[in-house]
Every structure is written in C-alpha cells, then in structure tokens.
Design a protein that fits this description.
- Helix content is 50%, strand content 6%.
- About 17% of the residues have low confidence.
- It starts with 16 loop residues before the first helix and ends with a helix.
- It is mainly α.
Length: 536
C-alpha cells in the first residue's frame, strides 16, 4: 500500500451559532419571541430596549429653574393667601372678607405642609407614583386581570355548600375527599373502591368496607349539592340525577301528570345504552321504554336540554388572544375601476425595539488593549452576541414580511371575495419565488398570524392542496371546505345532506370530490354526520 497526499475541494454548510440562532428565532411564535427577548435582556448587559421619547408635560423638574414672571408670582401669592386664610378661619371659627398678602416669611415651606395630595406627575421626581386608591381599599394592589380571575371554582362552590351540612368527622372528611377528586367537568372518574384503596394503603378488609360505607354516604350527599349532576361516574348517571331532580320538583309543585310521565320516560331512556340515544333511534327506544314515537321524541328533546358537564360553568377558561404579526389592509382609491390593492405591513406592537447600550459600548472602545485581555475578550463576545441578536430579529421580521407579501399576491382573490375564492397553494411555490428553502417557509408560516378584512388567520391557512375540476384546473381544499360548510348551513334540518349527496353537489359545481374526502373535510370542520344533524 502506497501512501500519498491528495488535495480535494468540497463545499459544506457549517451551522455557526449565529445561523443556529437565526433559524431558532424564525420558528418562534410572538409569545415565545417576547420571552426570548426578555431572557436576552436579562443575560446580556449590552442589550437594551430603545424606548421612544415621550413629550414631557409643562411641569416637573425641567420647569424648576424657569424664571417666573411678575404676573404668575402675584397669582401664586393670591392663591396661597386665600388657602391660608380659609384654613385660619376654619380653625378659629372667624369670618373675614379681607385677604392680606403674605410676607416673605409666611410663604410656603418645602418642609411639607402635611397634605397628601399628589403632584401632576410624581414620576418627574425620580420615583414611580402609585395610582390613587380605589374602592377596594388603600392597601389593595389588585389589577383588572386579577379581578377577572376571581371566579369561584367548582370545589370552592361545593365546599361552601358542605359547611351547611351537619356531618360527623368521618363523613365530612369523606365528602371533602370526593369533592377534591372531581375533574373539571364535575365527574368522579375513579370508582369508590379505587379511591378507598388509594387512601387506606392497607389490605384490611374490615377497614376498607368501613371506608367504602363512609364514601357511599358522602357520594349521596355530593349528589344532593348544586349543580345537579355533580359527582356522577358517567354521562348516563349525570343525566339521571338531573331528571330525578326535575321529577322531584314537578311533584312538589304539582306541575301535572303529563310532565311527570315525560320525565319518567326520559329516565328509562337514559337507562338504555347511550349509543341508542346518540343515534336517536326512536323506534328501538320506543319499544324498549314503552312509549310512543311522539313521546320518545319529546323525551329526547328534554334530555338534550340537560347539562352534560355540570362543572363547565365553574371552569376558569384561559382566553388566548391572538396578536397578528402581519396587517393586511385594502387601499381604497376613489373612482378606481381596477382590481383592489392591498398593503402588507408588520404589526409594530410585536416588533421589539432593541439596540446596543451606547454607554457600555463606548466604555469597551476606550478600554481596548487594556491589561485584562481575557475579561475584554469575554465582554467583546457579549457585545457581538447583542449585535447578532438584533440582526437576527430584524432578519426574522423581514422574512415574515416577504413571505406574507408573496402570499397576499397569490391569494388576492381571497382578500377580495373570501375563502370561497381561495386558490391552491403549496410551500414550494413561495419558496421558488423568494429563493428560500421549503423548510424556511414552513418555519415562517407556523404560529404566525395575519390580520385580514375577513379575520385573523395563521399563515398556514393560505396553503392547501388542489382538487381536480371538469375544466382541467384545480380547486383549493380550503375553498371546498367552505363550500361544504355553505351547503350544510343551507340544508333542511328535517332532511340533512349525507356525504354522498354533498359529493354529488360538488360534482355539479365541477369539483371532483369523493364521498370519503367529503367525510374527512366534514370531520375536520367538526360537523356531525347527517344522522346526528337531523332534527326531531
């Protein structure tokens, strides 16, 4: 074997830290980006927020050394004279119509006059003044978001009702344990035996039976609390608890035998398998429960008005507000007959205004070549990281704007006529137009939102596959979904459209869409099948 040297030229992509950071920032959402900016501001001293200078009011520190003219001095003297004269007359219970001017020694003192009135802007004096006290008390710092979150939970609502029950120590503890074991919907997911075994931690059969007895009593007490149906183990039990409460109410109020007969029939229906009720199998339920078809329909309608999730109104739902990254507005030109034009711009509220700290950067330049070269190199690296971060943030928003502009240009029919005019679009088309990779377009369109005249949508919403048409073109899957939704919205509630009928209607529109594809789109729109959409 002969050894030798050879020279070979090749190209490869090296993911530098700057490139890695650029890719990572590109795929972050607006919330994640703000968290990343906050973390970088805490870690890097060379990075700061560039706050716009707000015009200052005509009072405060800048006006402290301004010479006062003679007219304003006389007005101030008269003002202080009236104030002091009023105080003195109130303290001595004497009245006088004369106001004597103050002498030099009687003027206002900067030592303080004992008042607690706020100046127009206490922030001018170097401290941040708190807002005036509200009706919650002087010591309350509660803001509006905290007040909105003060919704009573299901457990707290049940514990408050349990205080009125006169129970023994064991039953009270068992009821407390069952209340804390409920899920957000108000259901008791585990059986009493499983709860007892997890609580006891032993295999003593007598002790387990005693605990099961206490838990059974506590479960009956839990079922008597409001909201009705809480503590049920399944949907059928939840519905039966509500029907029994309505039956007891109708008996006490003497609402009539027809109402009680209907409630009893509804109870028998809830004792049947739930799939019969879900399918609204009127004939089978009428045969099993001994009622006529009309009474069975009426009973099913009554069951449909019950609450399947008793704890739903106590759930503190977190409302996530989508902040758009891109704003699209139509440019209106009076008297123009051409196609409408749209302006695409970034949302300034989501763009962090960052800059390099000038003071620290100047100190770095002045100490260049100092004795401590290792410390200087470390600080120089932090300064370079700050510059890279600002550059990558700018590049991220530039890429989002370029991709959004290309999307608006290709989907101009959507911005003019709505989702029915959406055209097929894939990532490769935008990537080829902008000279970017498909993975870059995928990162840009994920968790980024665009505000349009028809609402706020994720950038991925504007991409969709195409379905063949009779004319040889393609129809966007998004437009087909919108058309299916339109067909179902206009259908008869007594004879809803089946998936096969919708497929035939799409063929009449020139769109080749199979029944399975219609079912997939319908399920994606969270629309029930025809059997469940049928009105009783």
């Amino acid at each position: 074997m002969k050894q030798g040297l050879s020279l070979r030229v090749s190209q490869h992509l090296a993911l530098t830290p700057q490139l890695q950071q650029s890719i990572r920032l590109l795929q972050l959402s607006t919330l994640e980006l703000s968290q990343e900016v906050e973390q970088m501001l805490d870690e890097n001293p060379f990075l700061e927020l560039a706050q716009d200078d707000v015009p200052r009011e005509e009072f405060g520190v800048p006006q402290a050394d301004t010479p006062v003219n003679e007219g304003e001095r006389e007005l101030d003297v008269a003002t202080y004279s009236v104030a002091d004269h009023t105080d003195s007359t109130g303290a001595t219970a004497q009245s006088s119509d004369e106001v004597t001017p103050l002498t030099g020694d009687d003027g206002p003192s900067w030592d303080g006059d004992g008042t607690t009135e706020l100046v127009p802007d206490d922030g001018e004096w170097g401290v941040e003044a708190k807002a005036r006290a509200n009706n919650l008390g002087d010591t309350d710092d509660t803001d509006a978001s905290e007040l909105a979150r003060t919704q009573e939970s299901l457990q707290a609502h049940l514990h408050r009702q349990a205080l009125s029950l006169r129970l023994g120590e064991e039953d009270r503890c068992a009821l407390h344990f069952l209340i804390e074991s409920l899920n957000d919907d108000g259901y008791l997911e585990e059986s009493l035996e499983d709860l007892v075994r997890g609580l006891a931690g032993s295999d003593d059969e007598e002790q387990l039976q005693a605990l099961v007895h206490h838990f059974t009593v506590a479960l009956g007490l839990l079922h008597s609390l409001e909201p009705v149906g809480v503590g049920a183990r399944n949907l059928a039990e939840c519905l039966r608890l509500q029907l029994r409460a309505l039956l007891a109410q109708s008996s006490s109020q003497s609402l009539g035998k027809d109402r009680q007969t209907l409630l009893k029939l509804a109870l028998r229906i809830c004792a049947q398998p739930m799939d019969l009720l879900a399918r609204r199998d009127i004939k089978t339920l009428s045969q099993r429960c001994g009622g006529t078809d009309a009474n069975t329909r009426e009973a099913i309608a009554l069951i449909a008005r019950l609450e399947p999730k008793p704890g739903r109104r106590f759930v503190d739902v977190e409302r996530n507000i989508v902040v758009p990254d891109v704003l699209v507005t139509q440019i209106l030109k009076p008297g123009s007959t051409t196609s409408p034009q749209f302006r695409v711009q970034l949302n300034p509220d989501v763009m962090p205004k960052l800059r390099v700290h000038d003071i620290y950067a100047n100190v770095m330049r002045s100490h260049r070549g100092g004795k401590d070269s290792a410390s200087y190199a470390g600080l120089q690296q932090r300064l370079q990281e700050a510059r890279w971060f600002i550059k990558n943030i700018q590049q991220r928003f530039d890429t989002i704007l370029r991709v959004s502009t290309a999307i608006v240009e290709r989907q101009k029919s959507f911005f003019t006529h709505g989702e029915l005019a959406m055209r097929p679009l894939v990532l490769r088309e935008i990537a080829d137009e902008l000279g970017l990779h498909e993975s870059t377009i995928s990162r840009v369109t994920t968790a980024k939102y665009m505000a349009t005249p028809f609402g706020t949508f994720e950038l991925k919403y504007f991409f969709g596959s195409g379905l063949g048409t009779e004319s040889g073109g393609n129809a966007s899957s998004t437009a087909v979904r919108a058309l299916i939704k339109q067909f179902i919205a206009a259908e008869s509630v007594k004879k809803p459209l089946s998936d096969n009928q919708i497929s035939e209607m799409l063929k009449e529109q020139g769109i080749e869409c199979a029944r399975r594809t219609v079912a997939k789109y319908r399920e994606g729109l969270k629309i029930a099948p025809a059997s469940l959409r049928k009105a009783l």
